[in-house]
Amino acid sequence: MQHVSWFDARTLLHAEGSLHAAATERVALPSAIGRVLAEPLKSPLPVPHYDSSAMDGYALAGRGPWQLLASQESQPGENVHRKTVPLEAGQATPILTGGLLPPGADAVLRLEHARLSNDGDLAMIEALPHFFERSPHLQPAVGDDIRRAGEELAAGATVLAAGIRLGARHIGSLATLGFDSLPVYTQPTVALAYTGNEIITGGLPGPGEVRDAFSPQFPFIIESFGARVTSTVRLQDSAPNFHHWLDHTAADILMLTGGSSTSDVDWVRRVLTELGATYIFESVAIRPGHPALAALLPDGRLVLGLPGNPLAAHVALYSYLPAVLAGIFGQPLAQLPTGTLTAAVPGYSTKDLRLIPVTIEVTPGGVHLTPQDKTRSHMLTGFASADALALLPPEGAEAEKNCQFLGLPV
């Protein structure tokens, strides 16, 4: 049996993914959330793209006091932010936050810092001097409360690099730049099969039964990584069922939970042999999750077999699918960050690497990893409160030891 290290398993899958680079497509801006950007984006215009006011108040020209000029009366529905009145020295005009700066204006006086008065038939604006005690002329300095075009970004500046997973914050920024659609990678497709005759999908399990720990959340986790789940099925444990599903399911990646071990009722390996599959790896030297496997069917579809125990299956999912997808999307395999254990972790009876659920606390002194309890392969309570999986040697580790960890983004 081809038994590889956890690091090698991820490297092998990343390399396999790199052989199947995703195509690209353009999608509407709202549909791009969660997708991977296929090309670098450059700003098509300066940001802001015009000189504007940062406050409600008055656009000013020269020193005050200022004669107040009013623009033409606005009509219902009119965009008043575009209305301007050219100013000469000693003149002012009302302006709103974001309003176009009038020609000749060199500062903005905030509404709450101004006093309006009348000099005969003229409306006059004065700056309230106590707000400008540090100014030599007791009034706004040139440039005060003006947003200058291009002060955030120059036209042509790179906004996002290719390979970034687009989130809601990205989309908001790109909308302000005028993007209506984005170039993204097509999503690799994943078909899911849940196995195990002992699994029930609702209610309280009885003796000899186990509640389904995968189907409510696995599709969400997989799609959060950037793939698209195209089908899910629950397979009864029999060779014909496994054979038919593996042979006839159309997807880039076929993922099974359970059935990947070597007992008499685990059919995945035997069926893969019947179908002429080629193993990328047959098991991994980690705990929990060593029965995980990866294989290629003759037509190029990738099979990922996850262990049946809940924590082991989750460890395998977070370990291997992102590695494949990074290769497909042309991204490097992410480097693992490090942190310091806050408590000792005892050794284990095997010689395999261990992945232990931990919580993360970031302080000025560094990243602190607190090991969780109840972390055997069939347990999920410790995993449920974890932020990451810490990589620990089989002999365990003392408190204050530095170790790498794999983040759990969802």
UniProtKB/TrEMBL annotation:
Enzyme class, broadest EC rank: transferase
Function: Catalyzes the insertion of molybdate into adenylated molybdopterin with the concomitant release of AMP.
Cofactor or coenzyme needed: Mg(2+)
SUPFAM superfamilies documented for this protein: MoeA N-terminal region -like, Molybdenum cofactor biosynthesis proteins
Protein name: Molybdopterin molybdenumtransferase
Entry's family note: Belongs to the MoeA family.
Keyword Hydrolase: no
The enzyme's E.C. designation: 2.10.1.1
This protein's UniProt keywords: Magnesium, Metal-binding, Molybdenum, Molybdenum cofactor biosynthesis, Transferase
Pathway connected to this protein: Cofactor biosynthesis; molybdopterin biosynthesis
Organism whose genome encodes this protein: Rothia endophytica
CDD domains: MoeA
Catalytic activity: adenylyl-molybdopterin + molybdate = Mo-molybdopterin + AMP + H(+)
Ranges for domain MoaB/Mog: 191-327
InterPro entries (UniProt xref): MoaB/Mog-like_dom_sf (IPR036425), MoaB/Mog_dom (IPR001453), MoeA-like (IPR038987), MoeA_C_domain_IV (IPR005111), MoeA_C_domain_IV_sf (IPR036688), MoeA_linker/N (IPR005110), MoeA_linker/N_sf (IPR036135)
SMART domains to which the protein is assigned, alphabetical: MoCF_biosynth
Keyword Membrane: no
